[in-house]
Write a structure and sequence with these properties.
The chain is of the alpha/beta class. The chain has two domains: 7-231, Nucleotidyltransferase, domain 5 (2-Layer Sandwich); 241-412 and 451-481, ATPase, nucleotide binding domain (Nucleotidyltransferase, domain 5, 2-Layer Sandwich). Helices cover 33% and strands 20% of the residues. It contains 15 helices and 20 strands. The chain has helices spanning 51-63, 67-71, 126-136, 138-143, 150-157, 166-169, 183-189, 211-217, 231-238, 291-300, 305-312, 352-376, 394-404, 416-428, 454-474; strands at 7-13, 17-24, 29-36, 48-49, 73-80, 86-88, 98-99, 146-148, 205-208, 224-226, 229-230, 247-251, 255-261, 272-275, 281-287, 322-324, 342-344, 383-387, 407-411, 444-448. The strands form five sheets. Strands 1, 2, 3, 5, 9, 10 and 11 form a seven-stranded mixed beta sheet that branches. Strand 12 (247-251) and strand 13 (255-261) form a beta hairpin. The termini are far apart. The model is unreliable at 476-481 (pLDDT under 50). GO terms for molecular function: kinase activity. Belongs to the FGGY kinase family. InterPro entries: ATPase_NBD (IPR043129), Carb_kinase_FGGY (IPR000577), FGGY_C (IPR018485), FGGY_Carb_Kinase (IPR050406), FGGY_N (IPR018484). Residues 312-429 form the Carbohydrate kinase FGGY C-terminal domain. Residues 9-238 form the Carbohydrate kinase FGGY N-terminal domain.
Length: 481
Amino acid sequence: MSLPAARFLGIDLGTGSLKLAIVDGEGRERAASSVAYGIETPHPGWAEISVDTWWRALCEAAGKLPVDERTAVRAIGFSGQMHGVVLTDEHGRALRPAMLWPDTRALALLDAWPAPQPNPVAPGMAGPLLRWIALNEPQALHAARWALQPKDWLRVALGGAMAADPSDACATALAHPDGTWNLGLLDRLGLPHRWFAALSPSYAAGGTLSHEAARQLGLTPGIALAIGAADTPCAALGSGLAQDGDALLTTGTGGQIVVLSAGEPAKVRGLHAYRAATDHWYRMAAMQNVGVALEAARGWLQYDWQDAYRDAFATEAARGLTFLPYLTGERSPWLDPAARGGWLGLALGHTRGAMMRAAFEGVAFALRAGLDAIRASGVDVPSLKLAGGGSVDARWRQLLADALQAELHAVDCPNAAARGAAMLGGIACGHWSAADLPALAPASARVAAPSGDVELEERYVRFVDLYGRLKGWFGGAAPSS
């Protein structure tokens, strides 16, 4: 009897859910599953989660995949939410809950990264969070052996190597732009060198699946584990970004606009220049408040999602009503962790639907502000590939295209980051090489083109003006032009 064709499993460890995707030898998705979970907020501004929650989600999601697909898996790749940190002992066992990127407890400690920096520094990055631990949890400081990114913790838990990759390391605020650890900075911050694992390429092999993990997941022990990459570069890889200038919009809890670059992009305030999952770089605008803001607005207005879409897009936008979505501060382009959100211009006659419509527009405008910063850096972005679970409604897609003034091409890949992770697994075990990646790009179709809505553009100008007027009230200076 012939062996089943090889399969490759991608694990995407996200902020609000864990997603799995199995792809075949041609890069086609054969099965997928996901399990959602919540962020823990034991104190205002904190964002944590127990790693046991991640492990239970992984086991549950694996159990949803067909048995015959799981048994054919020959390698696993990893994608993980960027930033945050998992502090562990020498065996990779977590010493405290994982700290996540929306966490703002280290906001007052950012003075250790005086401007200018290679990339914007946010309080939820590993650097500021570890500095907070060093100052506030001395017992953890002395007990810890490793400070891992989320996907690296998961790989180690599956039996893999203790390692880091450039795409995650360069976004910790503790490394040089190419991802190598900045040892001088670690010394200045009082962070032990021993915490930081050696770097390997995202597509390199990083150990094999342990017997116990294989038993719990229904997989074959001993299969290859790729080092893996951060979720944004994995989504870019899975969505088919392969050439200089290719652009991608992902919408999930946060939102990212990624433009691939053959070389290191020029440094621009408010934008990020990071390493990709391959040997490329990418320019990125990272907006914190996409799904998280829409979910909050939906909950406050007591909508289910079907009714939220229906009422929001049933009528024209209410004149003079604006929603600032900055519920967790903002990164691109404002670099304003103190920013806050809410509805402005509310009147007694405004309906729930009008408020929900304003919330959708506010999120679209926040994305536009990030894209405008990229365009101002000299990069023309007339179209973007579109990925992420937060952008499937046709009315929402049209609003995004109109707000961004760009064509949107939906990628035929509902699990782009997990697919990109699976492709890293395929490279790690030798099934593919980097030269094969362009041919594996998924199909995409244009789903929206900008309609030239003049009134929408006027509302965007109002949105930016209102943010600027309120910034001083939040506690900062007016935004720079």
